[in-house]
Every structure is written in C-alpha cells, then in structure tokens.
Write a structure and sequence with these properties.
2 domains, Rossmann fold, alpha/beta, ATP binding, four-stranded antiparallel β-sheet, seven-stranded mixed β-sheet, ABC transporter ATP-binding protein
Length: 353
Amino acid sequence: MFFSHNLIDIAGGVIRNPLVRLSAPIDFILAAGEHVAVVGPNGAGKSLFMDVLTGKQLLKKGTIKYDFSPSPDNTVYNNIKYIAFRDSYGASDANYYYQQRWNAHDQDDIPSVKDLLGETNDTELQRELFHLFQIEPLLDKKIIHLSGGELRKFQLTKTLLSAPRVLIMDNPFIGLDAATRDLLHELLQRLTGMPDLQIVLVLSALQDVPPYITHVVPVDKLQVGRKLPREEYLAAFYLDNTLFPAEEIRRRIIALPYDSVSYDSDEIVKLNKVSIRYGKRTILKELDWTVRRGEKWALGGGNGAGKSTLLSLVCADNPQSYACDISLFGRKRGTGESIWEIKRHIGYVSPEM
C-alpha cells in the first residue's frame, strides 16, 4: 500500500518533564491511510505517549513533525482530536457527578445533546454525521440520561463536526455491552472509509484490536514499541496467554472471604415489587429480587436496560429507594440509616464512576 506522506513523525523524542518521562526515546510515524491501535496494560505509558502526539507534553530531545495536508490549517489543536472514555460521560463535561442522574432536583441546568452539539456552518457534514450515528432521536435528551452507547455516538458526532485529520479514542469500548460494542465497531469501520481521517485507538486489551486497524503499536513498561502491521502483531502475541491474567484475577476475586462482616442478616439485598419511573418512562416495574449471603450474581442486559438503575438502589445512590420496599444488609431503607452505613459493606468498580 502506498502512503503519500507522514501526518506525524517523532524521531528520538524525549519528554521535557523529568517526572513523567518514558524509559526510552519515542520513534513513531503515522502515515496517511493508516489506522493505528496503541495497545498495552494499565500504567504502561499509553496516555503519556498520547500526550506527546497531541502536544500536551513537550520534547527535551528529538523532533516531532506534523503534516496535516490537505487540511489548510496545520495546527495540532484543530487537526488532532482526543476523546478519553475513562468514564461513562467521556469528555462531555467534568462538572457532573455519578449520583446526579438519580436526583431530579439537581438536573435543571443540565444541557441537552442539542445544546452541546451547538451550531455548525457545515450543514452537509452535520447531516451526514447525524444520519451515521442516528443522532436525531437523542437531540432533546439531557446528557446525563444517555446510555453508554448513546454517549459514544454523541461524543463522536461532536468531535467529528470539527473535521479533524486524526481522531484518537482512549478506551472506546469500556462499559459497553456486546451489542453496543458491535455497533461501535461498525461505526468506526465506516469512519475509516472517510477521506482524510486517521483513527488511533488506545486499548488495554489485545482482543479489542478490530480488523479495520492497519497497524499496532505495543506500549509496555514505559516504552513505545515498534509499529507493526496488525496481522504480524497478532500472530506474534495473540497466543501468549501470559498477557491475559483476567481469568486468574476473577478467580481470586470470587474466592475472597465474605464472612468477616458486621451484619447478621442472611439476606444482603431484598427488593419487594420495586418500581422506578422517570416521568412517563418506567425503568423497573414491580421487581422482586433477593440476594443471600454467599451468592454471586451477574446482571445481564443491553445499555439502557436498567442495570445501573438497579445497582443505584443497591448502592444507596437513588433517592427513589426511600419510597420503595427495599432492605439492604437486613435493614429496611428509610429507618434512619445513612448511605455511608450501607456503602461501608460495598466495593464498587464501574466505568461510570
């Protein structure tokens, strides 16, 4: 395949700040027509590498050159757009907090999708993106009411309206169910066919490298590896099971003791005909659910099905729980307990936090 020019060319790059340097100089080229996955475990140095690409971290040694032609503007700010999906809202707005979606009284000033997308002069591009990501039905929704898949569509639309040359997405598949992941893969596949747009995915899991990626850059132990064609990289590393200790981690988590507790009830969670509604929308309807000591449950369902709402009742985040027949750790909600008395028994890890 012939690539006409290099959009980004880093040669011997050493970060100026000595407190956050990588362990070896960076040598990296992003050529026109390439779509790259940057893959490595948490803490490997991927985000620091992206900070160099986007100009957030300046170089002490080496060079970095940009050529965003045919764009008439060669500035990094206008041509490289970065979206980090470290939480449910992506980069939509850092001023929201997790429990806010459950507190109706604290939503008056929350903007809608239409408000955040704003106006654009390129109505043809807007029309194309709205059709591609099915944005029209979402325009009047408040941003904190979007599901994980809807948030990805919103963020991609908002970013692509600025017509960047390079789109960097950090953990784009985090927190998505299988169906929404497949949809996002389909959308990204179509984006790779757009003229003058390069995709860079930052991933922690090797199995997340999709077929439309042309090259892979491994990052490990604060060192940026050599860029490899996707097939060559997968052939070399995919069968190495030492890269995937996830099953062992799950086994150890499940084996953690649960008998050293300060409550006596055998029923950890008990919901009796619980219904949750927001306006005309019913999220949960007359749900009965009991979780007993020692049981291990999996909640399954698509994005927007009500899993987060159900967990908000268990974790004492949803104020509607006071109007429902709910007991947690043997104590009925609304009998004088604080949310912290409940939360002290719960460990919670979620991309929405």
